[in-house]
Amino acid sequence: MSDILDVAVRLAAVFVAFLVLPLVLGQTEHKVMAHMQGRLGPMYAGGFHGWAQLMADAVKFAQKEDIVPAGADRRIFQLAPAVALLPYLLVLVVIPIGPGNAVGEFIDAGIFFVLAVLGIGVLGSLMAGWASANKFSLLGGLRTAAQLMAYELPMLLAAASVAMAAGTLSLPGILEAFHWWWVPWQIVGGLVFFTAGLAELQRPPFDMPVADSEIIFGAYTEYTGLRFALFLLAEFAGIVVLCALTTVLFLGGWHGPFGADGLGPVWTLLKTALLAFVVIWLRVSYPRLREDQLQKLAWTVLIPLALAQIALTGVVKVVIQ
Amino acid sequence: MAIPGSGLAKGLAVTLRTMTRRSITDQYPDVQPELPPRTRGVIGLFEENCTVCMLCARECPDWCIYIDSHKETVPPAAPGGRERSRNVLDRFAIDFSLCMYCGICIEVCPFDALFWSPEFEYAETDIHELTHERDKLREWMWTVPEPPALDPAAEEPKELAAARKTAEKLAAQQAAEAEKKQEDEA
Amino acid sequence: MTGTADVTALAANAHGFLSPAGVEILFLLVGIVTLGAAVVTVTTKQLVHAALWLVAALGGLAVEYLLLTAEFIAWVQVLIYVGSVVVLLLFGLMLTKAPIGRSPDADSGNRWAALAVAVAAAAALVWVVVDAFRATWIDLDGAVQGSTKVSGESLFRYWVLPFEALSVLLLAALVGAIVLSRRDIDGGTKKQPGTTGKAGKADKGGKH
Q1: DSSP readout, A17-35?
Q2: Domain ranges of chain C
Q3: Percentage of residues in chain A with pLDDT exceeding 70?
Q4: Distances (CA, A) of A10 to A13, A15, A109, B6
Q5: What is the distance between the alpha carbons of residues A47 and A55, in angstroms, rounded to a whole number?
Q6: How far apart are CA A290 and CA A90, in angstroms?
Q7: Span B2-58, pLDDT tens digits
Q8: A262 min Cα distance to partner chain C (Å)
Q9: Which of A60, A103, B1, B74 is the most buried (most CB within 10 A)?
Q10: Arithmetic mean of pLDDT, C10-24
Q11: Which residue has the higher pLDDT, C192 or A319?
């Protein structure tokens, strides 16, 4: 019986994190972005510096009418937000936040699981883009798919480098094998992974699929109310997942300068938060690239860098053995 | 050519620096904004100076100034003199739903009856109520800031010079009279 | 949980078809769903729906791998087929022709030939698998037989030659794709495919 209880508690914890962290991140984005632009951001909801703004947004979204366009493919249109959101929930289950057993569910081929399931999220955008019966949506879907060709390969290669270094595919296993000098050793791979991850999440400067000034809101143009909110939640959950994943793979997860035993989860969360800040920071600082510029960046910069990182990893690995 | 990526770093630095500075947003309904001293918020009317010459109403590009008046005859100042007629203002209203705040009325007023006031909180829920009558325009007159002081070495304003001249003349006359009286008494 | 494990162990000992364990029932059910999705994939007249049913079929296959304890293969299946191949398929559909609703002209005239080929292929595969494994049972309680370590060891110890041969084949396909997608090669300019000339505008997609 304690087995079931244990699993239930773990899943509940992951679910709570899945609901809370994206909200915290969204509020942070509101505020950080505002201050980086010399504004204040939300100030009213909740009283103190608008801390409840996203909850107010959620209430607003819940009240809105759920519209399905007349020409849309009804079922697929309604299913798409779930397909976009669920993969991130699944990925969050396997990310270790502390030493020992502090992980939702141990999976042997953790990296593969994470990358595979993250790839499914793209299907949600594609389904939404196609089923909306809207040309802007279709363009957004097309751009989403085109983008996949740019980020998928460098992301896999960069992750493969870490797996080579650690000699395992499991995320807790990688953290067990981590030493501090892995950070400089794998830094190039980390940068490639993070950049490719940004492209996967369609975050600026790689937000061509949702480019609101060109194609309204890409695949999400026709969505209203809760379904739209689910897409937004998917975006923020995606940021949390990407940052946590980069932390685990390249920044040593729960390892810290001191107190690794007790403070493990704190270190993980701290590094994740730092990376999330960088994601927001990049959004504020850089203009949007074109789709072909992303392809060029990926195929002429990211992939060669990732391959070089793999070569370096192999050489160092052989030398220290 | 600089180091590759230095432009990217510069962009990041700009946003980070901005974040550490105070934001420039005014929290208006909670905190009153600090307006520049000569803010052109609304037009105030100093009725006493108005002679109903209608210049403002005629020059207004939007025709948003409404003026009604009638003539009154004033009894002669000195017995046996001629009766004078005088314009009396009945209505002076500005429709601020039409006004485009060009300020031409203020510029053309030859008698300094119209002024810019920094007051700006006069929104209404009905567009008809934006036509403000003379009493309201007069209230705004009291919010008009004092005219800026003259330069230290500036010439005296014409009005003051004229008034002083008259006063000096009067004083000299009185002094002369008093002297004459003293001489007579002596 | 412990109850199920006991039943599994019993079934593994007995190997009886008449007393299926929970895992076996699940395997069968998922298999039926996968088969159903696959059939719908080839019979539906809505093109994009067909691609999405393909996702269901491939996902069902991944679950089957998982139930056979081949965890690594399962995730690779999801990563490559669901995450990339189907997305490319959808991309292609959207680029060319993806109407919402039925497309009456989607029927192929040689569907009977296709059916025959499919049945023949399925029969050959089933025969090979049944002949190879016959009554082999996976011991669910023992060491995991499909883990990354085991897969990697068998792949790089016993199957290196086929692995490398496949790699060469894929590389040849890649080079071929690049050659086909570059129009400036066969024309007046005598550029070699290997030279690092400025890439054409249209070949970015074709490379993948």
Answers
A1: HHHHHHHHHHHHHHHHHHH
A2: 2-140, 159-208
A3: 97
A4: 5, 9, 20, 45
A5: 13
A6: 31
A7: 787 788 888 888 888 888 888 888 888 888 888 887 888 899 998 888 888 899 999
A8: 31
A9: A103
A10: 60
A11: A319
Closest chain C residue to A77, measured at CA: C100
Residue with tokens 């919010």: B143
Q: Which of B40, B3, B63, B31 is nearest to B115 (CA)?
A: B40
CATH (residue range B30-148): 3.30.70.3270
Examine the pLDDT at C121 and tell me if it is beyond 90.
yes
A226 — contact with chain C (CB < 8 Å)?
no
CB within 8 Å: A38 and B15: no
Distances from the Cα of A93 to the Cα of A13, A18, A123, C83, C144, angstroms? 9, 9, 20, 19, 21
- Candidates A106, A113, A125: best to mutate against C (most CBs of C within 10 A) is A113
**Which whole number is the average pLDDT over B109-120?**
89
Q: Are C40 and C70 in contact (CB under 8 A)?
A: no
CB contact under 8 Å between C82 and A120, yes or no, is yes
Cα dist from C134 to B22, C35, C55, C100, whole Å: 75, 22, 30, 46
Q: Cα–Cα distance between A95 and A104 in angstroms, integer?
A: 7
Kindly report the nearest CA distance between residue A16 and chain C, in angstroms. Answer: 25
**Residue C184, token pair as written in the block:** 């400036």
With pLDDT > 90 as the criterion, what percentage of chain B qualifies? 17
- At residue A104, the pLDDT reads 66
CATH class of C2-140: mainly alpha
Q: Are C94 and A128 in contact (CB under 8 A)?
A: no
- Taking alpha carbons only, the member of A173, A194, A190 closest to residue A109 is A173
**Both tokens assigned to C142:** 């023992």
- Among the partner residues A116, A117, A126, nearest to C87 by beta-carbon distance: A126
**Chain C closest-CA separation from residue A49 CA (Å):** 41
Cα distance between residue A262 and residue A100, in whole Å: 11
Touching C (3+ Cβ pairs <8 A), the chains are A
Q: Can you give the residue ranges of every domain in chain A?
A: 2-320
**Cα C66 to Cα C31: distance, rounded to the nearest angstrom:** 12
Between positions 151 and 190 of A, the ones with CB within 8 A of C are 152-153, 156, 168-170
pLDDT at C154 over 80: yes
Q: Which of residues 68-97 of A touch C (CB under 8 A)?
A: 71-73, 76
Chain A partners of B16 at a C-beta cutoff of 8 Å? 36, 281
